[in-house]
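Technical note accompanying the year-one report. For the benefit of new consortium partners, we illustrate the data format agreed upon in the data management plan: each record pairs a sequence with a structure-token string. No post-processing was applied to the example shown here.
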Amino acid sequence: MDREIPKSEQRKEARKRYLKIGGVVVAVAAVIVVIFSLLKESIKESDLTIGKAEIGTLESTVSASGKIVPLYELAVVSPVSTKILEVYCSEGDGVKGGEPLLKLDLQSTEIELQRLMDEAAMRSNDIEQAKLNDATFLTDLEMRIKAKEMSVSHLKAEVANERRLDSIGSGTGDRIREAELAYATGQLELEQMKVQLGNERKSHGAALRSRQLEGTISRRNLANMERTLEDARIKAPRKGTVTFLNKNLGTSIGAGEKLAVISDLEHFKIEGDIPETNSGKLALGSGVNVRINRNIVKGHIGHVSPQSVNGMVQFTVILDEDSAALLRSGLRTELNVIYDVQENVTRIPNGSYFQGPGVYELFVKTEPGRLEKRTVSLGDSNFDYVEVKAGIAPGEDVVVSDMSAFKKKKSINLK
């Protein structure tokens, strides 16, 4: 017959069971905590971007943005106020140099051209007539001077003759004085005529030069009008593509109004801009790496604007291969302007960790399966690399991906 177990024994056995279960639970919890802690201090190596420090060349660059534009865009404007009569092409058409684009109403311009042609012809005739008149007048005066010279020479001979007669007692003093007076008068008149000839030559020469100047002005006006009329026959200035065209027939247009734009869509350049705080690193001829869809097109700075607009400085990049297939007009690009080149520099790959020269805390692989945080000094950079000034030796592996989740850790295990 079974004996009933005392209640005190039953309570004792129950306490033992509870203690055993509690111990198991505590042990399991401790294991879970340890495992969780280990997991939190470790990371898969495949989830990281690790780069190797190496010795190499570092092209220090500064970032800028740019836009691809045609190598040239030529605007065609109306030189006169008129209206459009005919349109010979459309936007997007390729044209050759000298090919007609539009026809303008040039009737009033042609009338003005004819008036200037007539005026120039009249000026030319006036000049020729003035030359003939001057030649006639001056020639007549020169002949009168020659005649006067002959007369003075005769009077001189008369004076000599009277003196000879007086010496032999056949002459008189009165006749000598009369001959001498006539001779002196003749000399004065001759001198006066010579002075007059010189003055007339100067006067007629000045008058002729004035007429010639008027003729030159007239011919210049005529040439300008001829050029204006030729420009008004709207033609493509060179080979290219029509990117704008005023096709409004019958529309009145003013002088200087844009009628068409011819662009070179086979050759391109870059119009870049950079914050004025970095503009001091721009220099004519400096190399530029243009990044287009993960590809690089090289070029150099061809022009830098002397002015800043809204805190930005504009510059132009001339491309080494300005007809590359990657280039598309209007495409925005990233530019890396080279301002310094250093040889034999310790460098590591660039990444999101780098925010400019300074001191950083980076994780370095010290042994297989282990990362240690290290204080390093970084300097200049470009799109691909960052200069290491101190803290990392060539050949070491460095984490270059985002490690902000582990910023309080001194070391990390790799899984």
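Partners are asked to follow this layout when depositing records. The domain at 107-232 is CATH 1.10.287.620 (Helix Hairpins).
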